[in-house]
Amino acid sequence: MTATTTVRPQIAAELPPVPLTIDGYSVLHQMMRVRWSAWRPLRKAQKAEIVREASGLLAKMEENPTGQSAAYSLLGHKGDLMLVHFRESFDALNQVELELSRLRLNDFLEPTTSYLSVIELGLYESTLKTYKTLAERGIEPNSEEWNREIQQTLVRQKEAMRPRLFPEIPKARYISFYPMDRRRGEDKNWYALPIEERARQMNEHGLIGRRYAGEVRQVISGSIGFDDWEWAVDLFADSPLVFKKLIYEMRFDEVSAVYAQFGHFYVGLRCSWCQLGNLLNGEVPEP
Question: Is the dihedral of CA 40, 45, 46, 49 positive or negative?
Fold first, then answer.
């Protein structure tokens, strides 16, 4: 953290504890298992017709100009297929669900789980700078003037960060998805730390991710109030080993080693809609 974000103790004690955030695309992950026992007996022509119908809709979703979709062939027992959808709203995500449910292919898919979130950027450093400036100007926290200044800051930041808030789904070969929480136990409680200390730890945590910027694309989404965990992480890369290296290194970072709790991990291979038939025939998606 830079010296400009250091807040004097008497000011820090009066500041709101919640960091500012800006939000982008709404995100839905759908994990599914193929009902192979029902799929296998179908005639070849029936399979081809079902795949053709599904591929037509999914191709449009993959190229949707206001938020894309992507399919992944999952490894392991947690499912066979994962669909990832970026959209402008929850309404649009619900429309995606309904359209997929009307496909004949849906009769052969069994949902295993799902995850709902919104792409989020936490503005710890900007929060401290903004809070400090407003406090030193004598503006009362949560007053009308305070809220107006905060809103103006969020508008500027959202415009500056638009590419990160509304990204295309990377076309990398592999994906690693997992949800996570910050610990709220009796001994270690992330939310009881002063905002300046949380900002310091998050800054150091981010330095690790930036070292992998050329190998991994990371999308963080917030899910507080939306799903069972607090955040969700999507990592995209052309080599799966980089997921292991990045996450292992982060485990030694203070914010992860002390305060992070992780959910189930889902790893998959990108499958374009034109390869859906191959996937249902038991073939690994081509790079």
Answer: positive
The single-letter DSSP state of residue 232 is E
Strands (E), 88-211: 109-122, 174-182
Tokens read off for 47: 């399979």
Q: Give yes or no for residue 14 having a pLDDT over 80.
A: no
- 166 contact partners, CB below 8 Å, separation of at least 6: 24, 25, 67, 86, 119
Pairwise CA distance, residues 134 & 139, whole Å: 5
In the numeric block, which tokens belong to residue 136?
A: 């030193």
Residue-level pLDDT at 6: 54
pLDDT one-digit tens code per residue, 203-222: 888 888 888 888 999 999 99
Helix, strand, or coil (residue 54): helix
For residues 191 and 17, give the distance between their C-alpha atoms in angstroms, rounded to a whole number: 8
> Are the CB atoms for 14 and 132 separated by under 8 Å?
no
Q: Find out whether 233 and 180 touch, Cβ atoms under 8 Å.
A: yes
DSSP letters spanning 2-24: -GGG---HHHHTTS-SSPPEEEE
Catalytic one of 115, 124, 131, 178: 178
191: annotated active-site residue: no
Residue 39 · residue 280 · CB < 8 Å? yes
Please, what sign has the CA dihedral across residues 71, 75, 80, 82? negative
Element (H, E) at 149: helix 144-160
Distance CA 125, CA 2 (A): 9
CA distance 57 to 95: 12
Phi and psi of 40, rounded to 5°? -60, -40
Q: How many Å apart are CA 47 and CA 280, to the nearest integer?
A: 9
Cα–Cα distance for residue pair 165/177, rounded to 1 Å? 18
